[in-house]
Structures are given as structure tokens and as C-alpha cells.
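Hi U.,

Before I forget, here's the chain from the pilot set. I'm dumping it here mostly so it's searchable later in email.
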Amino acid sequence: MSINRQELIGAEWKRGRVSGKRQITIPQKFFEQLQIKDEVEFSVQDNVIVIRPVREQAGNDQFADLILADLIKEGFAGEKLLAEFRKRQAALPKAVQRIIADSKQAALDHKKDQTEELFGDVMED
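Structure:
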């Protein structure tokens, strides 16, 4: 990311204070506009500090390398690689939710199996 100084000239600016502990206050308008939750990331670009919210995305970033590796092994390249990567990455949150639901069900089923195994003889009474 490169900072376009022309865009900065026309940008809306607000002032904040820096405490003795180097803590800054983000103006409420910007805080709400960016939907900041618990964390922000900092970077320095062309002598400008860039602050952006940290977005947790159900593991999408963690699996990006794995998705790309699979696509390359499958022979995707160029624009087709990009299109298929976006498609699979977009499907990832649903897949993770499905895995969570399956895991919960497996845990419930396992408990039932264990209960029957441990107490089956006395459950009939």
C-alpha cells in the first residue's frame, strides 16, 4: 500500500491526544466508521502512520496458503487461479461452520455411546 498524498490533502482530519503512555484516542466518527472492535494494526507508509482494524475471519487468512497450494497443484494459473481462489475462500466460513456443527454432533453422539456403554445395564431399570 502506498500513500497517495493528493488523497490525504482532501481527506477529513480530526485531532487526537497522545498520553504519556503513548496511548492515542481514535475520534469516535472514525472508530464507528471503521467498525473497530478490540484491536488495530499499525504500519508506517511514506512517513504516515496507517491504522486499520484487525479483522478476524473464521480462519480465512490461516487457510489462504493451503487453498493456493491446492489450486496450484490442480493446475490453476493467472486469472483462473485468482477467480477460483476467491470462490473457495468465500466458501470457507460456511465450511468451518459445518465442521463446528459436525463436531458438536459427534461429541453428543460420543457421549450417548459412552453413556450406553457405561450404564446400559442399569438404564433399563
